[in-house]
Amino acid sequence: MSKKAFVTGGTGFIGINLIMLLLEKNWDVVALHRPPSDLTYLGELPVQLKSGSVTDPESLHNALSDDIDVVFHLAGDTGLWSANNQTQTEVNVAGTRNMLRAASDLQIKHFIHTSSASVWSDMDNRQVHEDLPKKGTDSWVNYEKSKCLAENLVLKHGDQNMKTVVLNPTAVLGPYDLNNWGKLFIGLKNGDLPCIPEGVLSVTHVRDVAEAHINAVEKGKHANNYILSGKDCRFKTIIEEVADILNLKKVPPQLPDIVLKSAAHTQCVISRFTKVQPKLTPELVKIMTRKNLTYSNNKAKQTLNYKVTPLKKTLLDSCRWLSSEGHL
Question: Minimal CA–CA distance to 144: which of 163, 121, 122, 172?
Fold first, then answer.
């Protein structure tokens, strides 16, 4: 008998990949989507679509059913602009609280929550692992703060009949990514990427992250975090690898942090008048300029059978999908 999954954030990058993998493994899937969502990719899949929002408790109760085996809660606001902090907190924190209550009310047995490695925030000159205290609740970057507050709700949820597992991916790349790192590659190809930050990223393949979600259902331990990290590399290395894949002869210059911070401040001042989101924000600069931060994925490897795809293949898969869709 096949299992039945309820997925929030199903129109998103990781959500699409998770749903496709669930279908490959013969799961039945119910996908929640907001009424204005783009269903270009999700609508092509054999899933049951439910219209609603994590910020609307009534819509969740209408969408969920007591035959659901697992809730995969991926819905979240990943924005990095302070003007949207209130909306982001509502989606990430209140939305998670609403999902937990709705799942508990129907006595659903498993709740897999997609958080972020950014909940640990600033951990200079050390490798982050799950036992370290999280600094996200004190971060001035609202994405980090709201994601940390949200996962705390999951970890401290009082329903002992529902297993809760929190997954903390780092920088996820791969097919169906148009709005995250995919924009970086498109900008590089089109000559719209002005510079490269000096920071470091831990890059992981979306397929590896999706596999970990499914493995977390049976293998994950209740009220535990699992960091899903990958290859630690500098932005410069990533851009040079992508440029090589795209046969580009030049890459943008690498600029010092102070220059990027100044540019972000200027753009934010202008945005107060234009009401248009700046391309560069202080929050984005902060994340892109971290240099001495690495993440351990040992716990995920040991418990969830987490695998790490090589960087070259991860970048190739991203570029090939973007090319197939006419973006590169």
Answer: 121
